[in-house]
């Protein structure tokens, strides 16, 4: 310890002439890279071990989110209701989008609530990494915990709004619930699987493309219009715009429209639905979930960089 | 994990292949475990580059024309600056080491810690560690609007504890923080000292193999400071290796057996605390 200059550091490092390189030394003592991406099954297992954190984080965010507004958690229901009211006036009454649709209020409300669920999950997912950089740079956990927590937060909110939706549907159609309503949790499960996958994929995109948050509202608006939330796709596209049937089919096959149509099929009596809608629902759920996890995991070690 | 390392260090103790033995001098009355043992952290020619957003200079403020020409010329966004914070750092830390890191603001101390913790990816070079190093600090996981109670649970889970562990540690955390009945109130109602005390109490509730402490000692009033220094000492003794970043050189001299001086992202000096700190104070 006689030369107190940077030479000391160099002497310890590169200058360890004749000695094994540091990577070999690390290997000999069984040291591992500090930032290695675990294999995919191990990653999922780590994520499962963090389930308490994910649940607590989601609940905590829900509690703290509305703690400053007077109406509190009521906004979770008020927001889609107000949206539905605006669309009812705009498209149902003024522009005559109602057309021949039976039970138009129930039709609109179902579309609005189901679409809002996916929209909120995807939008929240896109911010889950980029908005939590300080957390990512401070603690160690599988990063997928964040988009997952955001998706679960939306699921918790959905529980309330689904209850309201069912009441409103019964009131507006005047038809009592049938045994078929037992399928509602199945649709929601499929939709949740899709939402989780989509928000995982969006989380990765949002972490590297900062403009995503500016772009998302427009993408969401377009998606809303393409999913037949306030008009019947079949009626509008094929019957009044005289476009070929396959255009309508593509629109029906998009994930949001699939879940909306499936839900309408359950809730609204005599609502015509393409028979293959449920196939599309299952496909999107499985595909999005698998792809989302895989795509997110691929960049696991890079999320801290910003 | 800690036991395993201990065992290993006994087995490997005979191996003489340990560099820079001569640098070790123990100024402390109670010397930490012998450093001629197993390496726990190896940093090999580490470079860290991270991105900073929103740092626009005046003449290229974000107007649309500029943005468009930039896109057409395929230039990066000017709001995004790359900071080369750590430039080729190499060292080996051993079991039982308590390493202080000193340096001016912006010399890359915190970045280096985050890289060792595996939170920031290296641009080039690598970090090898034994077990999972952890940063002492859960501030980022806590939410101001929530009660202290909820934050304790949230913070513990964020550090990876199980529900049983959280239950076990809960009372201890409340006691140690000394916030008493305030634990029922949202953290936004706390004084800054109380908040700092609770945060420290939560983050120090877990034991770690390799522990990284970033200026944690500068919190709370005098009494709590004493308490927390005591706690750090305990943690240090149970942990395999400790890294400590602090501006208070007295703390570093008291607790560390080795000091690394970082200057502009490079190691300027590495060795005995007294010598390095003396040189640091001169320079």
From TrEMBL, chain A:
Gene Ontology MF terms in the entry: ABC-type transporter activity
Domain of life: Bacteria
PROSITE patterns: ABC_TM2
Ranges that cross the membrane: 74-95, 158-176, 182-203, 215-233, 276-297
Membrane association type: Multi-pass membrane protein
One Pfam family matching this protein: ABC2_membrane
Sections of the chain in a coiled coil: none
Cellular component, GO annotation: ATP-binding cassette (ABC) transporter complex
Location of the region described as Disordered in the Swiss-Prot/TrEMBL record: 1-20
GO biological process, one term: response to antibiotic
Domain ABC transmembrane type-2: 71-299
Localization terms from the record: Cell inner membrane; Cell membrane
Keyword vocabulary terms for this entry: Antibiotic resistance, Cell inner membrane, Cell membrane, Membrane, Transmembrane, Transmembrane helix, Transport
InterPro entries per UniProt: ABC2_TM, ABC2_TM_bact-type, ABC_2_transport
PANTHER family membership: INNER MEMBRANE TRANSPORT PERMEASE (PTHR30413), TRANSPORT PERMEASE PROTEIN (PTHR30413:SF8)
Similarity field: Belongs to the ABC-2 integral membrane protein family.
Protein name: Transport permease protein
Organism expressing this protein natively: Nonomuraea dietziae
Automatic annotation (TrEMBL), chain B:
UniProt-listed SMART domains: AAA (SM00382)
Keyword Transport: yes
Domain ABC transporter: 66-281
Gene Ontology molecular-function annotations: ABC-type transporter activity; ATP binding; ATP hydrolysis activity
Alphabetically ordered keywords of this record: ATP-binding, Nucleotide-binding, Transport
Record region (Disordered): 1-40
Protein name in UniProt: Teichoic acid transport system ATP-binding protein
Classification lineage: Bacteria, Bacillati, Actinomycetota, Actinomycetes, Streptosporangiales
């Amino acid at each position: 310890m006689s030369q107190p200059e940077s030479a000391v550091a160099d002497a310890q490092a590169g200058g360890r002439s004749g000695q094994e390189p540091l990577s070999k030394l690390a290997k000999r003592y069984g040291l591992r890279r500090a930032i290695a991406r675990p294999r995919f099954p191990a990653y999922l297992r780590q994520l499962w071990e963090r389930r308490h954190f994910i649940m607590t984080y989601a609940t905590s965010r829900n509690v703290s989110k509305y703690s400053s507004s007077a109406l509190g958690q009521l906004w979770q229901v008020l927001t889609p209701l107000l949206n539905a009211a605006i669309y009812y006036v705009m498209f149902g009454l003024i522009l005559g989008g109602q057309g021949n649709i039976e039970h138009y209020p129930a039709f609109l409300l179902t579309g609005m609530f189901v679409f809002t669920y996916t929209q909120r999950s995807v939008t929240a997912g896109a911010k889950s990494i980029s908005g939590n950089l300080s957390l990512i740079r401070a603690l160690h956990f599988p990063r997928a915990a964040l988009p997952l927590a955001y998706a679960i937060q939306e699921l918790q909110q959905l529980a309330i709004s689904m209850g309201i939706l069912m009441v409103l549907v019964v009131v507006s159609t005047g038809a009592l619930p049938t045994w078929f309503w037992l399928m509602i949790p199945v649709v929601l499960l499929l939709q949740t699987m899709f939402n989780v996958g989509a928000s995982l994929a969006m989380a990765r995109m949002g972490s590297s493309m900062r403009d995503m948050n500016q772009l998302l509202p427009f993408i969401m608006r377009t998606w809303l219009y393409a999913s037949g939330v306030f008009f019947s796709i079949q009626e509008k596209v094929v019957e009044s715009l005289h476009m070929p049937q396959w255009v309508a089919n593509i629109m029906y096959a998009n994930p949001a429209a699939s879940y909306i149509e499936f839900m309408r099929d359950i809730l609204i009596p005599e609502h015509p639905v393409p028979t293959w809608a449920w196939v599309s629902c299952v496909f999107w759920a499985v595909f999005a979930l698998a792809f989302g996890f895989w795509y997110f995991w691929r960049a696991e070690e890079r999320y801290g960089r910003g | 994990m800690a036991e395993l390392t201990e065992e290993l260090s006994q087995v490997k103790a005979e191996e003489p292949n340990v560099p820079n033995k001569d640098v070790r001098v123990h100024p402390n009355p109670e010397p930490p475990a012998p450093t001629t043992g197993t390496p726990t952290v190896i940093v090999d020619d580490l470079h860290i580059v991270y991105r900073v957003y929103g740092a626009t200079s005046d003449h290229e403020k974000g107007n649309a024309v500029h943005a468009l020409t930039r896109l057409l010329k395929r230039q990066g966004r000017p709001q995004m600056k790359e900071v080369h914070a750590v430039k080729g750092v190499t060292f080996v830390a051993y079991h039982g080491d308590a390493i202080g890191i000193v340096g001016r603001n912006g010399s890359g101390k915190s970045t280096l810690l985050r890289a060792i913790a595996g939170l920031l990816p290296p641009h080039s070079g690598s970090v090898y560690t034994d077990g999972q190093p952890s940063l002492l600090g859960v501030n980022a996981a806590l939410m101001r609007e929530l009660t202290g109670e909820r934050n304790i649970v949230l913070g513990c889970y964020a550090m990876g504890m199980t529900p049983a562990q959280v239950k076990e540690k809960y009372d201890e955390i409340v006691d140690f923080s000394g916030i008493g009945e305030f634990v029922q109130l949202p953290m936004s109602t706390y004084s800054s000292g109380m908040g700092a005390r609770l945060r420290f109490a939560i983050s120090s509730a877990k034991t770690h193999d390799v522990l990284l402490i970033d200026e944690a000692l500068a919190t709370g009033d005098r009494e709590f400071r004493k308490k927390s220094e005591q706690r750090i000492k305990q943690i240090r003794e149970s942990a395999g290796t400790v890294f400590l970043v602090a501006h208070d050189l007295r703390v570093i001299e008291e607790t560390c057996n080795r000091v690394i001086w970082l200057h502009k992202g490079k190691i300027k000096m590495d060795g005995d605390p007294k010598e390095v700190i003396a040189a640091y104070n001169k320079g």
